[in-house]
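User: Some background: our group keeps a shared notebook of sequences we're curious about, and every so often someone picks one and asks for a predicted structure to add to the entry. Today it's my turn. The entry only has the sequence so far, pasted here. Could you supply the structure so I can complete it?
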Amino acid sequence: MKRLLMLAAAVLAAVLAPAVALAVTDAERVAVYRDFRAAFDARRYPDALPLAEKLVALTQEQYGANDRELVNPLANLGTTQYRMGDYKGAEEAYLRSVKIAADTGGNGDRLLLRPLQGLGATYYATRQYEDASVTLQRALDLSRNLDGLLNPGQMPILYPLIGSLVSLERHGEADREFQYAVRVAQSAWGSTDRRVIRPVDRYAHWLEHMGRYPSARAAYARELTIAEGTGSRAARLVIDPLLGIARSYRLEATNGSDEETAQYVDPFAQSSLSGLPEHAGRGLNPDGEKALLLALQTIDKMRPVDHELRGTSLMELGDWYLCADQADRSLARYREAWKEFQQAGSTAPLDAPRQLAYRTPASSAARSPLAERDSTDEHSVQATFTVKHDGHTANVTTSSSDATAAQQKTVLAAVRRARYAPRLLNGEPVDTEGVTLVEKLLTKRPRQP
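Assistant: Of course. Here's the predicted structure to add to the notebook entry:
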């Protein structure tokens, strides 16, 4: 009997041996993760993808389909798919990761941060801005609750959230988050650290985009001050704020400002850019031209010369002279810029006309806050025209519209007054036919009796 029991045990052990041998171990998962990480960090995403999928499968086999050990492997899979442009696959992986983390650890679980951020970024990349804003706000709140209101780890969450808010035209919320990003950077690194430059620059561009040119100029001036104190990198870092300062002067002169200048102290009212010529025209502040010439002087001292950066600065100077009605000087700068871009490898910045000055009609949707649109009807006018080699528009016509004749007339008049930088062909400014502009207009909806 004893021998029979021993034989049975031996048979059973032989049957179970393959299953035991096939059981997933931590060491096996760690080895797969290391291979995945090496491929992912080297940006070999096609090689990383099957490893990420294998890691999910191994983890699920070892712990089960709903265990929290799956949260990070699923987030890794989603991130790999995101980097490869497979947004549908990424969304599915992130959603599953979020659900497991929330189900096993609650809505305050730190494990939620990565998949929430990835899911929000995926929604943003696929232009699902409402879903992106909700998901990213959830991630942001969690980050602030876990690590403090001003923790720098929230920065990668803030910017896609801001992008979503801008796309949803929730401008007031976007403005607050732009300012908050600057506060976070200052709190984390100090007000003069070069890492503060990027959030300040982004906020300056936002203010410029919103037509708040004096405020934008103040932000660019602040960026310039920080850049000047960065030591060996200062020469490169001062260029962008100098161009921004000049651009804010130009746009304010040509488009007007959507804020009261008197509320702000203009940082260039008492110019520190002395020793440079003054050639302003059409109400342009001469400090803008001085900023551009200073940028070019700085670039010319850099070794090796950055041809793309020099081309960009010359292009901005050409824009300045064009808006100052100094056509000859403007076209000369454009020709120089084209040569610099050619040396840099691409003349794309000058391959199509660029709008420099355009005042939207009073009924434009761009001038109306989102909250005021509920009682209005929206109409559109598409204008087609030629941009001449000197930047003026010609042959302005309506190509499609559902607006009234009077509304179309206001749009066509605005387009005729607009100024464009001309397209350059083989280094020479040329006419460009078939340029289009779409203007959305609002009309008050009649009250219902």
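Suggested note for the entry: Residues 2-22 form the longest helix (21 residues). Strands lie at 354-357, 376-387, 393-401, 419-421, 423-425, 428-430, 432-444.
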